[in-house]
Amino acid sequence: MISEFEPEGDAPHQFFVMPAQRSLWQDAIEQLARNRLAIFGAFVAFLLLFVAVFGPWLAPYDYAEQNLLRINEPPSGDHWLGTDGLGRDLFTRILYGARTAFLVGLIVTAGTTILGVALGAAGAFLGGWVDFTVMRLADITMAFPDILLAAFISVIFREKVLEAQIFLLERYGWTFSEANRVYLDYLVIFGSLTLVQWYGKARLVRGQILSLREKEFIEAERALGASNWAIISGHLIPNSLGPLIVTITVGFGGAMLSEASLSFLGVGIQPPGASWGAMINDNLGQWRYYPHLVVMPGIVLAIVVLGFNFLGDGLNDALNPEQRRR
Amino acid sequence: MNTVSLPHMQYAIHEKSEASGHIGGMMQIDAEHSEIPLAPVGEAQERPLLQIKELQTQFETKQGIVKAVDGLSLELYEGEVVGLVGESGCGKTMTALSIMRLLPENGQIVAGEIGFDGVNLLQRSGEEMQRIRGRKIAMIFQEPMTALTPTMPIGRQISEAMEIHLGLSRQVAKERALELLAHVGIPSPQARFGDYIHQFSGGMRQRVMIAIAFSCQPRLLLADEPTTALDVTVQAQILDLIKNLAQEAGMTALFITHDMGIVAGSCDRVAVMYAGRLVEVGSVDDVLLKPLHPYTQGLLGSVPSLHSEPGERLSSISGLPPDLVQLPPGCKFWPRCPLADERCKQEEPLLEQYGASQAACWKADYRSDSISESK
Amino acid sequence: MLLYTLRRIAALAPIVIVVVFITFILGYFGPIDPVRAILGEEWEDEQRYAETQRALGLDRPFMIQFLDYVGSLFGGNWGQSLSAYAGVASDRAANQGRVGGAFFGTSTGVRQMIFSRLAISAQLGLWALLFLVIFGILLGVLAAVKQNTIIDYIIVTGSIIASSIPAYVIGPILLIVFVLKVPVFKSVGGWDGMFSRQAILPALILGSGPLLVVVRQTRAGIVEVLGKDFVRTARAKGMPERLVIARHMLRTAMIPVLTSLGLITSGLLLGSLFVEQIFNIPGIGKLAIQSLMSGDHPVIMGVVLLQALLIITVNLLTDLLYGALDPRVTYD
Ligand SMILES: Nc1ncnc2c1ncn2[C@@H]1O[C@H](COP(=O)(O)OP(=O)(O)OP(=O)(O)O)[C@@H](O)[C@H]1O
Ligand code: SF4
Ligand SMILES: [Mg+2]
Q1: Could you give all domains of chain B from N- to C-terminal order, each with its CATH number?
Q2: What pTM does this model have?
Q3: Residue of C327, C261, C37 lying closest to C129 (CA atoms)
Q4: Number of the ligand 2 atom closest to the C-alpha atom of B339
């Protein structure tokens, strides 16, 4: 009748029945669907995509078309959101601004992701001086104030790119942005923002790889003869994808915001290109007299930035369950 | 044998059997009962300092309602030391935390009364409770490693409560804290006053904990397994320290433990707990020498030995404690009880007087007879 | 501790050098030729050009110029604003684009210019920091204590909104509301000192940027300690709840907040490009934009350098303070 008596109770075990295993992605999607703010964010993102693609067909006017007889008009039947100081239709310009914002978001995010993933992975896999250099570069980039640095770089870039273009034109008679200077602006913003914003993703990817490498099951698999590629595709990618998706979503919103900021400061998109930031800056001097010219693009920008932040936040809760806020 | 039965003990048992009349009925906390009628009127010193009636404490979990404390009644008289024993998970800590009204977030006292010094603690406001905690009722916790704040010097942790409760100035409170540190056996208190908890060993931490508990000279001490987490060599010292300090102050104490040796060495009376309720209550001499309940007998081992050293493990009982979410009808102990019969599975035994002690067992009658006969 | 500090400083030295180097490169390859900026129309005159170039020391090799720059930095000389040379730079700014305007102040030494502006930005930043620390921590604690209730939800969502909307969107909107619709403020813009009414709106907007970070981290920190044993002990001693939070929870919970608060502080002290632009506050952000638009490279180099050095210093201080707050941290 005497058997082992465990003084530290067995009773609690009965309270912790493991729930049935379900896929992380399935869970994540359900979790996301329950998050109303994230749904709002996703809606905003899709709307932005739609407007960016179809904006020119939706727009009632041409974005650069001036009508000096009808400047600074309040919203009316002809001009839904009124006209700006050059008589351009504000609604049209906001639609085109979406195109700018989305394109910049897309290329900057692609650029920082490629650069960040490449540098981070190189650091983690090659180690040694490569890793050292990458990490110090990240430290140094982080030390600079990013918008100011991006602004400074973009001013320099613009000059250099212009010079290069003139050179190409004179030498070979070739130009890539004669018709539309906006592509030049894209290039400048893309370059400066990528240079300032790559390090977050590099650190993330490096950290993920290093922490995975420590895991015992990886060593075990390696010992069993699993190839590097099998480990990368089987563990690394699925494990890093969640955090990377979150960073990319938040980064996308961040890149659009940075474009608006640079344009607001006057070093981003140049006239007559349409950018929400530049529209705010253009009309800021007249906020007392024509408040709608400042408020409209501002509200649109705020909603878009907010949408991406809500989406990123929801994705974070859904994809990184270990840090999910209960 | 080392305990002296207190004179009012006999009385306690009468009182108890009266109280046990309500067992079974779910008592809702009644606002009109702010003052518990404490019988008998007259001799104030015979009034229990702490009177728990039909306490029910539950937790909401995903698996259902956990009945951690389920209809527990217990009195502590002025100046006595009562041991509360039972296996891990039977609800000892939750009983103490119910008294302090410091249950975890998902826990709730759903029924019962906790009379302290004539008032029902369950009807005190949060602010009133705050003034009672530490000042009138102090508690020493099970886990000295985590129970103290890591980012506050230990001296401050002792003195701050005195500033709040006794209205001492910071300087005076500091001086008293230094005295207390010396009193609980921390060498060179002046030097250690500003140290942080990670610089202390487990035993030293528990001494700090004790200094905190005694700092405002509370009337009731709840000591929740103060030595379980410590090295065997330190256990006896800490135990003696608490015992001596409590004796000096004439303090009433509830001593929660796994360890019958500690009960034998430190307590006047003992209450045995199983699955959230009491199964046996009596003087230490009675319970340890003549256990009525099969569970108590199991805890004491087939050959009860009061000479077991402190720290020695309890003897074994086969089987597991019941699931507190789905308690079976009848006696909660029957699946593990060698004496169980059909009646035990159907009807729940209540605490009743058998000789000098109380027990909740259908077979206690027979046991108490046989024991007294064999004696 | 001292040893640790010294070692940390030694490790930072190379980074500082690289930072200075990058700053210098930015200035060196900057879009505007200082000689042309100074000479204006006359720059085509080759002799004048060469003279001026020599006078500025710009004819020397790259490395020599760099070493000279580093050397004078050590001597406390951060260079001369191009506006020292007859205000040509600002003329150019007027042609260049959107932002123009004359320079403030009289001194043309970069360091003097920067530090006189820094004083204004720092005052504004101090208000913002005060707002941030008080409200951010208060809201974070409240959200944690009311965890998963509607209050928590409102606080967190509200902070996301407050932090997401850029200053150049909310700034004009608040101006329109509080000047045109509900005239609380009559005049806006400019700087009348720290205690003028004009400081309120800019400070609020500046402070709301990092609000989310502070609220989130405070909330997470408190939630983590909420169920800890030592909190229960503090309550068992009979400490009033506000003291339990302030003495026992906050300090432990604040340690991670501190890390980000350091960086936030450096950002706030240097003011904001946007807030200063919108409210026309002659702080360091405004200076940066002006000199950027006018091509006044020495000044913008100085601002970038100052910010980078400040960020590095603040990081170091945060690390050291971390040890002071968390007694478990030892340096060796
Ligand atoms: N927060 C909680 N949520 C759900 N159940 C809980 C909670 N806290 C305690 N319990 C349950 O309540 C029961 C009583 O716990 P309690 O801590 O009082 O046991 P104990 O007798 O003190 O045990 P030990 O000797 O291990 O300290 C246990 O079964 C435990 O699982
Ligand atoms: S009532 Fe029956 S089952 Fe319960 S302890 Fe007594 S004999 Fe055992
Ligand atoms: Mg316990």
Answers
A1: 2-28+47-281 (3.40.50.300)
A2: 0.79
A3: C261
A4: 7
